[in-house]
Structures are given as C-alpha cells and as structure tokens.
Design brief:
32% helix, 7-stranded mixed sheet
C-alpha cells in the first residue's frame, strides 16, 4: 500500500469520530477555530534514520534544524505563524550526549530565529535507529488561512523559488558527495515562514501548500481538493542550478510554496511580492476546469508520465 | 545522562524562547489559554519497538489502543477532556498492511470510546523497528486544570486504584508468559478519562498527575513543583493482586491517577467519588513542609531506597 493509500484508509475508518471543532486530515495542517477571529493549526512529521537521513551524511546540528524546518514549512504553507512545537527523540545508546546536545543546538537556533516556543516532548531509548517526531502549532487570523480546496478556474499557479535543488543534493549524498552546495541545501531546507504569512494576508491568494513530494504530485492534491484541472508550462518552471527539469517537477523535500492566485490580481501580487522579498514569484501555469493535469512546452501540449517523489 | 537530565538541559537551553502564550514543559501537558474560560492542553509520547513493546508479545490492535491510551492519560491527569490526536507511524517493510489495519482498529476503537478526533499524522517507512508517535490535545475550563505545583501542606495524597499490576505483567511478558491476566493488563492500560475530568471539576483537588514511572518517582515531581515534602504510609498503599509492594511503589506504566486534596474536604471527596464510580479512592499519605519523601509503616518511619521506573 502507498502512503496515500494508507492515509485514505485511515480517513475512511475514522470518518465516524467526533470532530470536536477540528478540521482534520486533508490539508498541510489541521485547524481549530478558537475564536471568531483566530485559529490554531497543527501538523506533525516523523524523521527516521536510514529513510529520511543518513547519520554519517548529516551533522546532528543540521538534523535538529531540518526536523523543525519541515514542520514550520507546513504551518507557513497555510498562511499561519508558527508559535510552538513538541519534540520527541528516540536515541540508540551510541548516540552520545554530545550528539543530542548538538541536535538541540540546531533545533533551538531555528526556534529562536522564528520565535517558536518548545512546549513539550518525549525522550526515549531506541534499539538501533534515531527517530525524531515533531508536532508544530501555528496561529492565524481565520481569514488568512489558505486551504488546498480554494483554487479557482483561471487562477495563476505560482511557486516561490527555483526547484529541484534538494533532490539533486540528495543524489549527491547518495553518491557519496556529501560536501556539495546542493547536498548542503538538501540538509538545510529554508522554510518560507515570512513569505507564507505574507501570502496568507493576501486575499487574491486562493489555494496554497508546501512542496514536499514534488509539484507533479503536490499540485494534484490542490486539483483534487478543489475539483479542478491544471496546465503547467514546462518552459516556465524555474530549475535550480545543478538540477534537471525532472527534478524540479518531481523532486521531494523542497519546502518551497506552491499556490494559486486570482488571474486578475496576479501581476500586482507578483510586483508587491518582489518589492517585499527582493526575489520574484514564478508563474508556472493555470488552473482549469476538469480534473486533468496537462503539460505544455512552448504552448503545445506534451505527454509526461512523471509523478512525484515517494518516501513510502 | 538520564531522561530527566536531558529534559532539564533542554529546558535550560530553551528558556530564552518566546512562550507565545503557552505554559510549557513541567506538567503532564502544555497549556494554551485560548479564552478567559477555556484552554487547550498538549502532550506527546513516542513508543519504540524493543523498548516500549515487543512485537511478538503484543497484538497490533492492543498496541493501537495502548499508544493512544498513554497520551489520553496525560490529558485526563490535568483534569481535561481529550478532544483530538495526531498519529505518526513508522513501519518496516515486514509490518504488513494487515498489521497496520489492525493497529488502526485498536486506535480507532479507543478514539471512538472517548469521543476523540484523529486530525492528522504522518506515515513513513523505517529500516527495522516499528515506531509510534502520538500527540494528544485536550480541552478544559481554566479553573479545572490541575498542575503538579498546586499541592499544599497537610493535603491528603490519593491514588485511584491498586498499583503494581502493570509492572508485574511486564515481568510476566519478559519471562515469556504473555497470556497471564497481568500481562494483559500491561498491554491494555485503561486511562482514567472520566475520573480525571471529574476530579478536575473538584476545587478541593490540588495537584494531580498520572503514574507513568511509579509513585516513588512521580510523587517527587509534585513535591519539587510544589516545594513540599511528603510522607507515604506503606501499609495503606493498595497493591494489585499478583504484584509486590515494591512494584506498587516503583512500577511504571500504571496510568492511574496520583493527586492531592485538601485535608478538610478529603473524606467527603472520597465518598462522592465512590458514589460516582463504584470504586474507592485510596489515601496513601500526606503532603508535608520541607522537601523530603518519607516512608512510614504502622506509623513508624522506615528507610527505603526504592526509586521509580526508568525507561531511558
């Protein structure tokens, strides 16, 4: 069974549970509207040695930062501000006190940078592998929250940075080249906390998520949730230096933003974004009627059977 | 370094982070007061194969229930109602779809029993071991929340059930007797959700927590947080059938409640509790001035060097 297959079976099994005011599985975060004005948002990620990282190819400090970053990215991807995390660590006997202290230094430094509290957690032994679980909590004005289901026909599809670098870096690491700039990028993702909140406050931004499994997979989540189709212009997809177009479309663990915005307001939005962040937005396609994802090259439809990155 | 030593070093490192309205590490749960009347509470636990359970000695269904139960217990231990959870599962290739489906059945059944939503999570592969991470969210009236720091001198110390059975069951399992009633109890803890909420609503109840590392260890958390001492009457500690006094005092994973209540109101509280739940409260000692934990047998102080259960 695939990860998504298993998640769907859990959704079906748990459909009869009380919601207790929580909007659950389906977006980057669950949402709890705690007042007429504001909500808390919740997300969690598990990182396992040998699957998500190799102990010899990453420093403890980098791993502490990355474990936090991937969760903060999910909060930012809904337009919210991260406010608190819970951290659980399972360490084998040979992960020394020094390793744990360095991990915490990386976790603490990124928490401090984004003003996020550490409010709880759990520490245990493990038999062999290091396992890290982080739950992040965000806070947002109710009318700033961006959901995958809000894309509208004719919306422009944007991404916030050249893509594929993280995947190219992962290949460098797997090939034993752990010191390349792209390997460094893969180990040190930079969640778009300020950009996510800024886009959250813009009403012309409709659907948003972060790119964790590659556009080719992630965009389908927006399409499914919004009951829409999409067309992507391959010649407009920004490709990171050292990466291929395929990596830009299918590479996982980018932690950049993918969003749709009203066609009429899109140009002004891109100008305001560039003025604010000194970096452009990249329009890569459009939302359409229907349910299909189409690829275009110089205006002509092409066939691609590329799908996203699969961890599971 | 011990688990508590590591947690203390994390507390020190992270003392400079913004709290963002969250009351953090130190109680069973973190607390976020979202209105003048109510709070959300947060707790998380990690269960690792070979450390917290043995795959051959527990069914997937039981493990699904236990992973949830230990978290709900932390919520109940502060007087709150569990409302939602996030669940992350890391499974090696040989944990089949059938195993995962049975695990979810156990998790779902207990969620349904206590009216708890499943709002998110993560599923990944692991190299070898099964790892389960649960984050639970509770909700309570602000004036119902019980903290470890609220014990007062002269308070009566209560527990809600005979103790030591879970530890005796663990020893049965480790000895290869996985089918005994106590082994069954160890695998199927029964979190005291209704009792915790009922005690939360009683103002004469001061400090409360759940027994996860044994009274001898857990009571010290209440003493330290409240800056008090305590005396325990060994002849009043209720010992589960098949367990020893040492197991009742030092055995972990009981998930029963340990709390203190005003001396003047204690008898009435115990009567009301027994009328409501058809099971007694067990007064086992008193809170004192000072900082020492003393043990008494038939009114005479005795020396004991027993400490609590250590996972780490």
């Amino acid at each position: 069974m695939t990860e998504f297959g298993f998640i769907n079976s859990i959704k079906t099994l748990c459909a009869d549970l009380h919601k207790n005011g929580f909007e659950g599985i389906g977006d980057d975060c669950a949402v709890f509207e705690f007042s007429e004005r504001e909500s808390l948002l919740f997300t969690t990620d598990l990182l396992c040695e040998g699957v998500h990282f190799l102990r010899h190819a990453t420093s403890a400090r980098e791993l502490g930062g990355k474990a936090l970053a991937v969760n903060l990215s999910d909060i930012a991807a809904m337009g919210a501000r991260p406010v608190a995390t819970l951290l659980s660590l399972s360490l084998p006997a040979e992960a020394t006190e020094e390793w744990a202290a360095e991990f915490m230094e990386g976790y603490h430094a990124l928490s401090k940078r984004y003003g996020v509290a550490l409010i709880g957690g759990d520490t245990t032994r493990s038999q062999r592998d290091i396992v890290i679980s982080v739950t992040a909590i965000g806070r947002a004005a109710n009318d700033h929250i961006k959901r995958r289901s809000e894309a509208e026909t004719r919306d422009v599809i944007f991404t916030t940075a050249p893509l594929g670098g993280s995947d190219a870096g992962l290949h460098d690491i797997l090939d034993g080249h752990i010191d390349t700039p792209l390997a460094d990028l893969h180990r040190n993702p930079c969640p778009e906390i300020e950009k996510g909140q800024w886009l959250g406050a813009r009403h012309e931004v409709h659907a948003m998520m972060d790119i964790s499994d590659g556009i080719a997979s992630d965009l389908r989540h927006i399409m499914t949730a919004s009951h829409k189709g999409a067309v992507i212009d391959l010649d407009r997809v920004p490709v990171a230096e050292g990466a291929t177009l395929k990596q830009a479309l299918c590479g996982g663990e980018e932690y950049r933003l993918l969003f749709t915005a009203s066609f009429e307001a899109a140009e002004q939005l891109a100008r305001d974004f560039e003025r604010r962040f000194r970096t452009p937005l990249y329009p890569i396609g459009r939302i359409t009627e229907g349910a299909q994802l189409k690829w275009r090259e110089h205006g002509t439809e092409v066939e691609l059977d590329w799908t996203g990155f699969t961890h599971y």
